[in-house]
Design brief:
Layout: H1 24-75, E1 82-84, E2 100-103, H2 104-108, H3 115-120, H4 133-136, E3 155-158, E4 164-168, E5 173-176, E6 217-221, E7 239-240, E8 254-255, E9 261-262, E10 300-305, E11 310-314, H5 319-326
Parallel strand pairs: 5-9
Antiparallel strand pairs: 1-2, 3-4, 5-6, 6-10, 7-8, 10-11
């Protein structure tokens, strides 16, 4: 008899039997196990992605800090937060901001391998002039933190009536004017009140930072949901408002300077007349305004220091230490951070 023949009464070979499928209960158990594993792995994956984004963000700030030093080496001064003719007939009558308005980001373009964009901007015209429009709307990845929501979309710069004055490329990095908020006062010259390194028409030299370059914040983070920022410049008459007033109920609209500039507090203009208290706003403070640093990283924000380094600052940093890091020449003591 052939091996392939089956004798009467013999069962079919187990190899030839049709396999039975999973039962419904077994399928549900497998799905539940997969779901449980996914719920355990997802936070770890998200955490790894955020860690990578935060590192990229820190690298951006490091490059910007080095570009600031290249600017200082070439021109003997650090770039101003923005430049403005405060006596121009085109100036804003309240803030005294005038043309050209170009900001620190635009001034750093030649040192960031963005000479092509720099060459398309006419720095003799206002930054919002139509001739600058095509270059000014350019999104530049080096000015954008990968963790920031909506960072790559263009920024519509508007006035209090909602009229669009210009459309610029966004930035999620801002210049530090110090503890004080100089744009809250109708002054032509901010140098007597701005105690940080970068503000309107500043001409800060390395020797002016007597608190120490390694102990002075030059740049930091800011997110679009708290108020749009740009690398291009300041437009006279513009207003910066929080995009989500429910999330930031304590923040109101602020002056055009806050398109590129922030401060830390305590500021004399914020002193409560009853208590005499003036708040300090460390990164990610729930009381933050559009004119303070805020990031979408858990637990803090990245900053660039005057010595060309960059580091992460915890949102639990001692407030006095944060204020000390924000001034350039007050002799205040920077503790451990």
């Amino acid at each position: 008899m052939s091996r392939l023949e089956q004798r009467p009464g013999m069962d079919a070979s187990p190899c030839l039997r049709t396999s039975q499928g999973f039962t419904l209960v077994e399928l549900l158990v497998v799905i539940a196990i997969i779901g449980m594993l996914m719920s355990l792995l997802l936070p770890a994956v998200q955490s790894a992605r955020e860690s990578s984004r935060r590192t990229s963000c820190l690298t951006n700030l490091k490059q910007l800090a080095l570009a600031i030093h290249s600017h200082e080496a070439t021109r003997r001064v650090f770039p101003a937060a923005y430049v403005a003719d405060t006596r121009s007939p085109q100036r804003d009558p309240v803030t005294l901001d005038g043309p050209t308005g170009f900001a620190w980001g635009a001034m750093l373009l030649p040192y960031l391998e963005e000479a092509a964009v720099h060459g398309r901007l006419n720095f003799k015209l206002p930054c919002a002039d139509p001739q600058n429009a095509s270059a000014a709307i350019t999104p530049l990845s080096l000015f954008l933190c990968p963790s920031a929501t909506g960072a790559s979309s263009p920024l519509e710069v508007k006035n209090a009536s909602g009229t669009v004055l210009a459309t610029f490329g966004r930035a999620t990095y801002v210049a530090n004017a110090g503890q004080e908020e100089p744009w809250g006062l109708p002054l032509e010259d901010y140098s007597g009140i701005a105690d940080g390194p970068l503000y309107r028409n500043s001409r800060t030299r390395a020797s002016d930072v007597t608190d120490g370059l390694s102990k002075t914040v030059f740049l930091g983070e800011h997110v679009a949901i708290l108020g749009g920022k740009t690398w291009v410049g300041v437009v006279p008459g513009a207003e910066v408002c929080p995009a989500d007033t429910n999330r930031f109920p304590n923040s109101t609209c602020d002056a055009a300077a806050t398109l590129v500039n922030v401060h830390s507090g305590p500021a004399s203009g914020e002193i409560d007349p009853v208590t005499g208290f003036a708040p300090i706003h460390p990164p990610n403070s729930p009381l933050c305004h559009v004119c303070q640093m805020f990031a979408e990283h858990p637990d803090g924000a990245n900053v660039a220091l005057g010595d060309g380094s960059a580091r992460f600052i915890s949102d639990t940093i001692d407030q006095q230490t944060w204020a000390a890091l924000s001034s350039r020449a007050k002799g205040d003591i920077v503790g451990g951070y």
